[in-house]
Amino acid sequence: MSITPPSPASGVPLSRRRLLQIGAAGAVVLGGSYAGVRLWEDSSPVGPGSAAVAKAEAARHGTGTIVHRELTAAPATVDLGGRTVSTWAFDGTVPGPEIRLTAGDQLQVRLLNKLTDPTTVHWHGVALRNDMDGVPDLTMTSVPPGGSFDYSFVVPDPGTYWFHPHVGVQLDTGMHAALIVEDPNEPGGYDDEVVLILDDWTDGWGDSPQDILTRLGRDGMGGAGMGGMGGMGGMTSPGQPLGSDAGDVVYPAHLINGRLPQAPVTINSTPGRRIRFRLINAGSDTAYRFAVGGHRMTVTHTDGYGVRPVEVDTLVLGMGERYDVVVTVGDGAFPIVAVPEGKKGPSAMAVLRTASGSPPAPGARPGELDGKLLSYGDLTPTAAAALEPLHPDREIDLALGMADGGRRWLINGAAFGDHKPLEIKAGERVRLTMHNQTMMFHPMHLHGHTFAVATSAGPGIRKDTVNVLPMQTLSVDLTADNPGQWMAHCHNAYHGALGMMTVVSYVA
Ligand code: C2O
Ligand code: CU
Q1: Which domain holds residue 205?
Q2: Does 420 map to a domain?
Q3: Integer angstrom CA distances of residue 410 from 35, 398, 406, 435
């Protein structure tokens, strides 16, 4: 198997960008000062620098292997395949360089910031030590232009993860990449592995992420150039599993591994080989419906954790979600497509090929897209991924709301900065219940933990990012086993930046 082509890039400075640094007004735990509200009079927040965080890290039994990397965040000019854009990237490429290691390894990354704005790296989905989580003003001070930061942490669990900045809407530039954690006891069941990163693209082509954020904050969802239904949204239906308005932003392009459909990544293989695709939605405002033309897919993991294998034709990934699927390769040239779900826009495409013959045309719409669609209800966790069914010690509600016609997005009536931290104690079993009071879906993500999506029948699938549908109430269960201060937020980059974020705060 071979994959072509890599995307070339070179550095060109940009100066047009101003970044809104979210979190500056938020609860600051660094150094022990704290602006939150006490649930327990005599309790105090467990900060990232606390002994409890160091103790939890010491208990993560490592392999002893240290993986060193250096990552440079800098302006870059990148060829998307016939279209060159100026953006921000890690090491000059979109996506950035994959980091691959084995569960239990220690990852040491030196981040060099050559941007004109502060930045951080967040390791999405990894149950890591709190002071390495990369959230400005909550777990670390953001890295100033010209500065650097040394990340160092044990990566405890195998799976498909990714990393991206956690400042403003930097996520909607080219700064994202895969973090693949191999399982030392990998059961296999496949011959080859391919990582596919799906992304919505505007930077250096359409409006800049900062301009989009400014306009959404000023005009709400009725603003010119916005997609969907002008904020009206609509309930889910069989054809629209996320509702009729799943995004606010119309993107000029959608990419798979940084390439346009006109010059797609091509996976060359042999009939009968089993390919494990690791799918990552790195989009900022786009859910994707994914399919491989001429093939069914066996779903094996979601958000890094195992599920009992299920065969489907197509599946939808919300922003931040991952799926691993296995495909047995047929003979021919097939489109691999990711279609924006619940919004307008061209699709993203890659090509799977074993034979010569003409490549699929950009815009190909294989019938699998309308076939059997995966839903969470089809999935059950593997025995290893199932959480013990325990009665929750603490139940916390999160009301997901919208205000001012989409100019602000709220959790429990407050935008981030005015939020009340959600306090829990180490060792508790916690149930978070999300009440979506809006007509858009929200891919809700919790840092530092992998929760179980609650079901009425049996153990729920383990995930760190879950789509909460319009007007839906959905609960997730977790064991409070990773002390610190952890973001819980919508992974729509614009909803997050306009307020839909809060903090799950361990207190002692
Ligand atoms: Cu990928 Cu706070 O998120
Ligand atoms: Cu949202």
Answers
A1: 192-224+250-378
A2: yes
A3: 19, 10, 10, 12
